[in-house]
Amino acid sequence: MSRKFWVAVQFGLLMTLVAPLAVAQQPIIIKFSHVVAVDTPKGKGAEQFKKHAEERTKGRVKVEIYPNSTLFKDGEEMEALQLGSVQMLAPSLAKFGPLGVKEFEVFDLPYIFDNYEELHKVTSGPVGQKLFKKLESKGIVGLAYWDNGFKVMSANRPLKTPQDFKGLKMRIQSSKVLDQEMRDLGAIPQVTALSEAYQALQTGVVDGTENPPSNLYTQRMHEVQKFVAVSNHGYLGYAVIVNRKFWDGLPADLRATLEGAVRDATVFVNQIAK
Description:
Blueprint: H1 3-24, E1 28-33, H2 41-56, E2 61-66, H3 77-83, E3 88-89, H4 116-123, H5 126-133, E4 140-150, E5 152-155, E6 169-172, H6 176-184, E7 188-191, H7 194-203, E8 208-211, H8 213-218, E9 227-229, E10 235-243, H9 244-248, H10 252-273
Parallel strand pairs: 1-2, 1-3, 6-7, 6-8
Antiparallel strand pairs: 3-10, 4-10, 5-8, 5-9
Helix pairs in contact: 2-10
């Protein structure tokens, strides 16, 4: 047989040995999608998680962050996670009611927490973990609760008494509890994606909102809202979640490292929110 033939055979054998090595060296990609601005507690927390994850895994993991609904909007991201189109999210807790885990709607009840200490006894304790367990049947693993803060009310007229809400179209997240809250105030609840809230306020599709100050400011709602009532009436928090199939498929050492990165990012986020 010719020398060229043997060179080709040897090259082929070499490639069969090198190719798996090249594949093994490819980093594991985590797409982290969220719907708020970069300069928010959640936005900064995602960046902090990326920093910790990539440094501590020494490049074995690469985190791609898609903020401000650039990849998926409010109503799309949960299904995208379940389908594996994205690996990590941090949706607001109100998103789990429509998913079928109604117990999370307890967080939408007004004035249920007086302060962060009371709140963290729930989110960091057995109740928070029990709620996360309920997500597993949906193909989701819960990793942490991130604060965004307590909500205020905004409108283009002063909101000093419950009567001041009468007839106002108020933007809310999709939540039966929030829907009823607004109806009890005499307002008309309007479910609107966060990314569409500014335009809805600007054009009069909605008259007001309930949001933590960070969302009001970073979504520029203060440009189209004249008044804020510092009611601190409800909590807006997020759950850091991952696709269960993806998470279970990671090497155990990587999972442990990423859990540590999430824990440290959680401390960072909650300090900013407070």
